[in-house]
Amino acid sequence: AAPAPTFLEVLDGKANPEKSQLIYAVLGDVTAPSAPGNVKKATPVWPPANTPTHFFLTPSGGLSPKPALASGKVSFTYDPANPVPSLGGGWSFGNDPNGAVDQRPLAERKDIVRFVSDPLDAPLEIAGKIRADLFISSDAPDTLFVVKLVDIYPDGQEILLREAAAMARYREGFDKPSPLEPGKTVRLAFDCNSIAAVFNKGHRIGVFITSSSSPAYEVHPNTCEPAKSPADLRAANQTIHISSTTPSAIILPVVK
After folding, report:
1. Could you report the average pLDDT of every consecutive run of 10 residues in the chain (256 residues)?
2. DSSP 69-134
């Protein structure tokens, strides 16, 4: 078949193809030349065909294909006076580290909780929108949750693939902001943007959760009203609830 006309050729009067051709890059293991991924693919629609697949958080810090049978929770304290620094992601257009950056420099921070799968028996390709589905509580009237999707290499590298954030007050929609009740469990489900990538065999899927990423996201003061001075900032005790009735998970668009 003849190659599809380019955008400029269509603008110059060449017939537009019947189907769109979206060219997208599939990220992959950069340490193994023969690894799947690191290619470009074409599709007439986005996302390409995929199966939204739940990876449920476990109380022990794992990821499971099924919700936890026993109830559990994972907690951390978020202090806006000491936010987690942004390390990669898509926020910077300057000279700051951007894109797929190793997260290991943040390993000692106590305000990041980590959930990691077992090593994969076979490559796992994803293409499309990632979603987080968290059941959370806090002792603050409003706060922020940040989710990082990480490709963990056998040598220990923790390569950031995607990062996204959501404010608790908008859990029912941007048109229905409401404060949190201290200690009450609520559902916080949000879009974590789109990606195409392959987790190679032997790699592990990582889901890192925190409440800040500065300067990618404005530091949340853990109040409903804007902080007017550093004295208005307050620390928040954050909890992620994990059980069959509070099945916190990340949902990945798995491609066959």
Report:
1. 76 79 93 94 94 97 92 96 94 82 97 98 98 98 98 98 97 96 97 97 98 96 90 95 97 96
2. SS-EEEEEEE-TTSPPBP-SBS--SSSS--BS-B-GGGTT-TT-EEEEPPPPSS-EEEEEEEEEEE
In this predicted structure, what is the pLDDT of residue 1? 59
Residues 43, 20: Cα–Cα separation, whole Å: 8
Our measurement of the distance from residue 250's CA atom to the centroid of its chain's CA atoms, rounded to an integer in Å, reads 8
Burial class (CB in 10 A: 0-12, 13-18, 19+), 210: buried
CB atoms within 10 A of CB 146: 25
201 touches 147 (CB < 8 A): no
Tell me the longest C-alpha to C-alpha distance in the chain. Answer: 66
Q: Which of 210, 239, 192, 220 is nearest to 84 (CA)?
A: 210
Residue 203: count other Cβ atoms within 10 Å of its Cβ. Answer: 21
pTM: 0.92
Residue 28: how many CB atoms within 10 A of its CB? Answer: 20
